[in-house]
Amino acid sequence: MMRKLNKQNQFNQLNEYLGHEKEDAFRESLMALHIQDRVEWFQNLDSPQMRKMVYKYLTAKQLANIFQGLKQEEQIQMMQEMNREQWIATLNEMASDDVSDFLNDLEESQVVSVLNEMDAKMASRVKQILEYEFESAGSLMATEYISLKTTETISKVMERLREEGPDAETIYYLYVTDEAGKLTGVISLRDLITSDPAQTISEIMSDRVVSVHVSQDQEEVARLIQKYDFLAAPVVKDDDELVGIITVDDILDVIEEEMTEDIGEISATRGATDPNMSAIDAAKKRAPWIVMLMFLGLITAEVIGQFEETLEQIVLLAAFIPLIMDSAGNTGTQSLAVMVRNLAIGSFERKDIWKVLRRELFAGMMIGVGSATTLALLIVIFYEQNLILAGVVGTSIFLSLSIATVIGSFIPLIINKFKIDPAVASGPFITTINDILGLLIYFTIATSMIDYLL
Hints:
Blueprint lengths: L6 H13 L3 H9 L3 H9 L4 H10 L2 H8 L4 H10 L2 H9 L3 H8 L4 H10 L2 H11 L6 H4 L6 E2 L5 H11 L8 E5 L5 E6 H6 L6 H4 L7 E2 L4 H11 L3 E5 L5 E6 H19 L12 H28 L1 H6 L7 H25 L7 H30 L4 H31 L9 H22 L1 H4 L1
Parallel strand pairs: 1-2, 4-5
Antiparallel strand pairs: 2-3, 5-6
Helix pairs in contact: 1-2, 5-7, 8-10, 15-16, 17-22, 19-21, 19-22, 20-21, 21-22
């Protein structure tokens, strides 16, 4: 039915079928698309009337595939457009982790109402996930998985997969449990397919299972799955009872969320990175940071005020204030980004901390030497061969950049020690601190050399 058309033509054809109420042609053409293309087509469907026709023509399972691919605000719009009974049926066809993700952003009273209307078995699974702390492995896991017993034969398991596989989150990894539900082994789909059908699970399973605890932070889970190149990881309680699985597609979402959060923290725009956010909402999110940094800026002004007498005697010193401040701030922000990145991906252990700090210090010193030498030469050339001024500015730059790299590296480490996201040591925050230190160094050296500068 579906000819080889480019995606836009396919979308246009779907719209045409929908506009002419060709239900069978529409459904067949839509189901021929990749699931993500179905979501994209639906997101571009602006007509409320046509969207209601979609709800009429598709089954709850088909709608569930679209619903779980939408953004939160789009899901809410879809919920409001559908009749209540159909929407609840759609939720029942979704994976439990996707339902819990959606409900997490609703009011508690709404969550209770929805769970009461959902299928009892499905509601129980979702409640189990909602009990766990937000951004933990428990809140991320899906409870639709297939567990095996050691005594089952390969042929029996293959029959189960044909029956239960369509409703499972994944069947590429299958986990083995004992009578008490404790995780004891793992087997891959490849092992099943290539083994003798008469063999039992105990004969081919691996008992070296890497699992995550329900309370483990989602970032740690992401690092573990990345480290072992897993497609999924089992989630267990304290007694090793298997309660769910986390698949790699969920981890990709976690990585995107964490990267967005870290970028927001470093740039002091946390919560304001959504391109669809209104100007008013973005201003509300960003204004507190700007106000706080404005007050920190008053400290910078106070530092300059304390050396007013030096400036009055050597007015030329004022010309280099922006240079000192910008250089120190930018260098500190570079070190901050390096350290936050290393902490985020867990690329070094505690024993490596001093090594990294030493590296950043030496890097800052080398950058400082290069910057100081270049600047000193320029001052000598353009400011009547003023060697003392060149020495003051050059030394200030060298010390400022050396210290800035240490500050930019050390503050995230301190914050991380207190179990706080190191990204909160935002770029503007580090920049302001290094501005203040750079000015103190600059004016202290200039004041001590005032007699030679006159």
